[in-house]
Amino acid sequence: MAVRVRQTYIQHQPELPEQQHEQIQEHKPQPKKAAKFFTPGEKFLFIILAVVVASFAISILHTQGEIQTVSMEIQSIEREITEVNNNNVDLKVRVSELSTHERIWEKAKELGLTLNEKNVKVVPGE
Question: How far apart are alpha carbons 68 and 62 in whole angstroms?
């Protein structure tokens, strides 16, 4: 506002001698240089901060990937354990079926074995 008043004042005044005109021009405010938004040191710190944050993010993502891989391996091993346990149960059932007295007598008869009580020896129980 003050600059406009001075400019208007200068424009409407009659011709002034050179010295007065120079004095008025000397009092004109010089345009200020725009201040830098960030100093070079601050820019450097921001870059360092960005690098640190990026490295933490990358390390977290890498760790999560490794955790996911290990979790998949654990699930695979648990599935294999379940299958082996089921096979063990099936085999125990088959052993119990095959070891019945009736089946043993049948196999003995097929092979031509007979029960001779004279050849049987009783062992005292433990």
Answer: 10
